[in-house]
Each structure stands twice: as structure tokens, then as C-alpha cells.
Amino acid sequence: MHACKTLAITALLVLTGSAAFAEGIDCKTIGTAYDDLFVDGTARVDAIVKQFKALPAGANEQQRDAIRKNFCVVGGEIIGLYKFMRALANDCSKQGMAMGNVIDVVDKQLALAQDGVKICK
């Protein structure tokens, strides 16, 4: 399945189920519940950066582009994770939980991630 279709289907499922899903979330742990996903994403970005730095000085555009595409895929996943975290935090906030600090951190990290993937457009 094409990556865009997969992303669209996933986004639709997340949006339609977020309210029901948020009711099952322990809002007190939302700031740390998904740490493993972000650690994995960061490790994958670090690996891609190492691949890029390891390119020989005479690397051709095709070699550079292959690494750039991998970066864009992982960067897109990280952006999706931050958007998901923000949606969950907003849902928890609507349930009366204090989520201001979590939303602030997520928004800052989301902005950084979006800035990092500008090369993908």
C-alpha cells in the first residue's frame, strides 16, 4: 500500500477513535507513557545522520537522496507521534486534567521536528 494511503488511513483511525481512546488513557502518565516510541525515533534519526556523515566526499545525488528519504520517513513518524501526543493531551485537558506543561513541551518539540523535515518538501 502506498505510504500516503497508509498514513491517511492511520490518521483517520486515530481521529475517529481519539475520544474513546483518551478515556482509557491514564492522563497522569501521558507525559512519559510513550517515551519508548520517541527514544526509538531519535535513535533512528541518529543512525540516519551517521549514514549521511559517512558518505564519501564524492557521493552522488542518488546516494544522498536515498538517505534523505529515510530521514523524511522517520521525521514524518516523529511528527505524527507528537501530533498524537498533543491530541491525547488535549483530550485529557478537556477531562479536567492539567496538561499545560505537557502540551507546551509537545508543541515545542513538534515545531522542531517540523522545522527539521522542511527538506522533505
If you had to describe this structure to a student in words, what would you say it looks like?
This protein is mainly α and 121 residues long. It is 75% helix and 0% strand. The chain has four helices and no strands. α1 runs parallel beside α3 (61-94), α2 runs antiparallel to α3 (61-94) and α3 (61-94) packs antiparallel against α4 (100-116). The longest helix is centred in the middle third of the chain and has 34 residues, at 61-94. The model is unreliable at 1-13 and 15-19 (pLDDT under 50).
What about the largest sheet?
none
The number of distinct β-strands equals: 0
C-alpha-based Rg, rounded:
17 Å
The N- and C-terminal alpha carbons lie at a distance of: 21 Å
Strand content: under 5%
Order of helices and strands: HHHH
- Average predicted local confidence, pLDDT: 81
Instruction: Please give the count of helices.
Output: 4
Shape: elongated
Low-confidence stretches: 1-13, 15-19
What level of helicity do the residues show?
over 70%
Structure classification: mainly alpha
Q: Short description, anyone?
A:
This protein has 121 residues and is mainly α.
Q: What is the secondary structure topology, with strand pairs?
A:
Blueprint: H1 3-23, H2 35-53, H3 61-94, H4 100-116
